[in-house]
Design a protein that fits this description.
By secondary structure, the protein is α/β, with parallel strands linked by helices. It is built from 25 helices and 34 strands. The two termini are about 40 Å apart. It binds adenosine-5'-diphosphate (ADP) and zinc ion (ZN) (2 copies).
């Protein structure tokens, strides 16, 4: 027997499978979806079996599988196809896509034990194991393997896969990469470990880190001692409190009732549920999920990570009891693994989780729901660069089940599809409790300047904040920029202090009295004199959340003000602390970045201030207007959710911009009509499907040369496709690397094929990095 194997070579794209001989003792044991160790080049590599077969066309150099990692498949055919789709459609690595689909625990070092009924073994074998009843797989003498596996096939031996170091503890130590630390570690090992941490880009528990990277506790401790990483302990929270929550099912209102009945289970339609903030979408999701369960099927619901608050978790647990697995980032690796096994075994019927929950191994899906479907976090930005919504469509097709995309502010692309019949549009134009959406006032910041007000708060906003505080109500102030001021400039010569490694200005942080680069973490103490002309007239331009916080404290020194941004929230726990404090009205005012715009449901909030609505408008992306509109509308939706009316104050230098006007009136349709005209005029999605190829390198000339080379190669095979660039990226230099961008609108398959070959072409090139991204959802 032979196996087609996809080989995992870290950070390399090997999307072609290789044939290997299945050793006879593993025949009938290794199946599609099992992982194996195979010889590849000089090394042993992990591989995934895509197919087993009785013949091969390979005639020379055929090698044998070395070792079985799994004796039961960890991936089924559905996921293998899904990974293949990601590798082709999203220009990602096949092996990395497969790896993403299995729980982290299974990716760590494995250990298997064989238990056997002693009597069933023949004597020659028994004498090898006289002393033990169980034996670790890894210590079986090679020559005994064939005999042992024969026994397994006969059913005389029981095999048990166990994961090392996965156990329940009260505390787990987590490692947090401190991106703000200046300098580099003195040891090579320390540097390697740091770049490893930077690459995985999330906090990781210390055991997995040691397992995955192979570095010792010593290296980690040294890094922690020198401030490159932080170690913190996380208590494994008891789920008891959550389970004590009492749920009551409300009766649907007329609008909800209509929408509820419009959805039909048992077909693969995509529904766009456009419902204003607070319109009761969650209640509908839960009804449909219940119906799906009653029809004997399963349900999958995706939410943005930040919405996975204990609150929503509690509601779902209360309603669905043991039937549900909630996958959130507070789970430990072993808990995630437990949940995965429960899902795989069919013990749970409902899965709620963030982006990666799209890979939940449910086998009988009856409905898929994606809440807040406009959220960019449904796309993974590093390899494999899949879109969870895209994959949700494929799974909905596979299971012939409906997909519901829910949002108060759908992306123009999705609304376009709904209007043109590709999706079915369902609308909830009013709030469920009958409250009006909050009234908005637009404040022209140019007038404030004219009147000599240079603080981040207009006079109207100041008055409203004070009024709100006096009424014992809470307010939320949103500003899309952290730090104190956005940049520092010399009044005499105009020089702006920039990051030496990046093409952007440094941000002043008042608390630490430092200037920081928000891209690479570079940090210096605040400058007193201009580097260029020596003048000491330094000006702090623009405002960040720190300055906004200070301005609020200035007008209301007695109020309790909280700040919510990445400077105050290093980990999920911090977020939850701030969340609870505000929720329980232990604080009056919440100042923060995007984090305050998402999904928060505080009943006592009656005022929302958007400190500068223009920041998001000026990003050089085709959907900047959409993102700005969404942000304003979402944060506005935090006001007046319960018994009292809400009010929104939008501060802007551009009050006549359609984004601001429509957001003021909560006029999604009006916004959409303007936005879609703009998209059409500029040939942007949904009227095109751009692919962005980034060419990144240290040497400017070399990087540019390669970028031109790639663009020309694409032009060489294209007749109708549009290939723009290379041009310098919006932020041309980041972390000492130059970024060139080529934008492709592929109209021919040959152009797509050519793009597929770019990664392999550069994978041995140490100077150039390629990053390919589909720019539409
Ligand atoms: P959305 O997800 O659309 O923002 P939610 O589902 O969170 O809205 O509902 C907002 C609030 O309205 C919640 O507190 C919810 O319990 C309540 N609600 C939902 N449906 C009804 C209803 N039919 N009658 C009364 N209250 C409702
Ligand atoms: Zn100067
Ligand atoms: Zn920088």
């Amino acid at each position: 027997m032979f196996a087609e194997v996809i080989i995992d070579i870290k950070n390399k794209q090997v999307n072609k499978s290789f044939d290997y001989i299945i050793p006879t003792y593993l025949e009938g044991i290794l199946h599609v979806g099992c992982r194996v160790k195979v010889p590849f080049g000089k090394l042993k590599r992990t591989g995934y079996i895509l197919k087993t077969k009785e013949s091969t066309e390979v005639t020379r150099g055929l090698k044998e599988i070395d070792e079985a990692i799994d004796l039961k498949p960890v991936l089924n055919e559905e996921f293998i196809k899904l990974a293949e789709y990601i590798s082709i459609h999203d220009f990602s690595f096949y092996a990395t896509s497969l790896e993403t689909m299995i729980p982290q625990a299974l990716r760590m070092k494995y250990e298997k034990t064989i238990k056997w009924v002693t009597n069933s073994l023949d004597e020659s074998l028994q004498k090898h194991f006289k002393t033990k009843k169980e034996i670790s797989f890894n210590t079986i003498p090679k020559e005994l393997e064939p005999i042992l596996f024969k026994e397994i096939k006969l059913g005389n031996l029981v095999i048990d896969s166990r994961i090392k170091r996965v156990r329940k503890e009260k505390y787990i130590t987590y490692v947090h990469f401190n991106s703000e630390k200046v300098g580099i570690p003195s040891s090579k090992k320390g540097m390697d470990l740091l770049s490893y941490l930077e690459e995985i880009n999330e906090d990781i528990d210390i055991n997995s880190l040691m397992n995955d990277s192979g570095y010792s506790k010593n290296v980690i401790d040294t890094l922690a001692k020198n401030g490159f990483i932080d170690l913190y302990k996380k208590e494994i929270e008891p789920e008891e409190d959550i389970k004590n929550y009492i749920d009551k099912e409300v009766s649907l209102n007329r609008m909800q009732e209509d929408v509820y009945h419009s959805l039909k289970l048992g077909n693969e339609k995509t529904y766009l549920l456009h419902g204003v903030t607070g319109s009761g979408k969650t209640e509908l999701y839960m009804r449909w999920i219940k119906d799906s369960i009653h029809s004997g099927k399963e349900a999958l619901m995706l939410v943005p990570e930040i919405s996975l608050t204990p609150q929503i978790t509690a509601i779902f647990y209360a309603r669905f009891k043991e039937n549900i697995a909630v996958l959130h980032s507070r789970l430990t690796i072993s808990e995630k693994y437990e949940q995965w096994k429960r899902i795989l075994n069919g013990d749970v019927k409902i899965v709620v989780g963030a982006r990666s929950a799209i890979f939940a191994p449910l086998k009988n899906l009856g409905i898929i729901i994606v809440d807040e479907c406009h959220e960019a976090s449904y796309r993974q930005s590093n390899n494999p660069k899949y879109s969870a919504i895209d994959l949700a469509k494929i799974r909905s097709h596979t299971y012939n089940c409906p997909l519901v995309l829910g949002s108060a502010t759908p992306n123009a692309e999705d609304y376009f599809r709904a209007i043109h019949g590709e999706y079915e549009l369902l609308s909830l134009p009013k709030r469920a409790n009958g409250r009006e959406l909050p009234k908005s006032i637009v404040v022209d910041l140019r007038e404030e300047l004219k009147n000599g007000n240079r603080t981040p708060l207009s006079n109207i906003l100041k008055e409203e904040i004070i009024k709100c505080y006096r009424n014992h109500e809470q307010s939320i102030l949103f500003l899309n920029r952290r730090g104190y001021s956005s940049f520092v400039q010399c009044r005499n010569c105009g020089e702006v202090v920039k990051c030496p490694h990046c093409d952007i200005s440094l941000t002043y942080h008042g608390k630490t009295n430092t200037l920081k680069c928000h891209y690479c973490g570079y940090q210096i103490s605040n400058v007193m004199k201009c580097e260029k002309c020596g003048s000491d007239k330094i000006r702090y331009v623009g405002s960040g959340t720190e300055k906004l916080y200070e301005a609020v404290k200035n007008i209301l020194p007695e109020a309790k003000v909280l700040r919510l941004d990445t400077d105050t929230v290093a980990k999920m726990e911090d977020y939850e602390n701030i969340y609870h404090e505000f929720k329980e009205h232990k604080a009056d005012i919440l100042v923060g970045t995007q984090m305050v715009t998402k999904g928060l449901d505080f009943e006592n909030v009656t005022l929302v201030g958007v400190a500068n609505a223009d920041i998001a408008l000026h990003y050089p992306t085709f959907d900047a207007n959409q993102v700005a509109f969404n942000l304003i509308e979402q944060v506005a939706g935090r006001a007046g959710r319960a018994k009292k009316d809400g009010k929104v104050i939008i501060q802007t230098y551009d009050p006549n911009n359609y984004v601001i006007e429509c957001a003021k009136n909560h006029d999604y349709e009006g916004f959409y009509k303007k936005e879609i005209l703009f998209r059409k005029a500029s040939s942007m999605p949904p009227f095109s499907e751009p692919i962005e190829i980034e060419v990144i390198g240290k040497n400017l000339g070399e990087t540019k040369k390669e970028a031109i080379h790639i663009a020309n190669a694409l032009r060489g095979v294209s007749i109708n496709s549009i290939i723009l660039g290379p041009t310098e990226a919006y932020i041309f230099k980041k972390k000492d690397l130059y970024h060139y961008v080529i934008l492709v609108q592929a109209k021919e398959d040959i152009v797509l094929d050519k793009i597929q070959y770019i990664y392999p072409l550069y994978q041995n090139n140490k100077d150039i990095t390629i990053s390919i991204t589909r720019k539409w959802l």
